Amino acid sequence: MPELPEVEVVGRGVRATAVGHRLREMVVRERRLRWPVSPELPAVLRDRPLVATGRRGKYLLLGFDNGTLIVHLGMSGNFRFLAEPPVAAAHDHVDLVFEHGVLRYTDPRRFGAMLWHEGAPEAHPLLAGLGIEPFDPAFDGDHLYRATRGRKVAIKQLLLAGRAVVGVGNIYASESLYRAGIRPGVAAGRLSRPRCDRLAAAIRETLADAIAQGGSTLRDFGGADGAGGYFQLSCRVYGRDGEPCRSCGEPVRRAVHQSRATYWCPRCQR
Ligand SMILES: [Zn+2]
Fold this sequence. Notes:
The protein contains seven helices and ten strands. It is elongated. It is an alpha+beta fold. The strands form three sheets. The protein has a four-stranded antiparallel beta sheet. Zinc ion binds next to loops.
């Protein structure tokens, strides 16, 4: 499932290949994504230049000169840029056709979304209530400290909820807590200010490392074989239950809370 780093990397791929180009045509083969693609969208976008890309949480923002296409990749969505597009396959639901090639949206599970918004995208109802971005300078230990006071919920659950900070999904929550030396089940309100400082820094480092790793797959963005190819994060604890902690050698533990798997080192995380 694409998480914040994957969305960021896809956005950079779109920026590198299509920003500054005029969209000739939008071809919708399958409207039934998570919400139906508006039948008016191809006419709204025809001959409009793509001027910018951005990201808010896990939403990809494709900025045209007349509004923003808000894209969510859902469980399995992805874009590829194809200079010479082959005939569309079963899950290739949308083509954004530019003069120099095609941005093809593929989504086998169809939980993705493409919504049109005129005006500031941050005002869209889906985006307006999102928490602070992890790379926003205002996201720091102080922010996390204030956001956790009085909260009895486990710190990992609080991160996943997305209100204290957006984009920290299940994998990255486990990885960030490991880096910060904090046990996932600790009540959020019990974290000291220095531990909040460490956690905020660990979240940023974990996500930045993942984006950097994904950046190295950007060369595949234009490849015909790039469909569904999310990059593999090299995890320190996630998916490594029973294997030795890379720092102390103790076997990594796994538990399931609310049907989400959590991984941690019982010695390094307190
Ligand atoms: Zn350890």
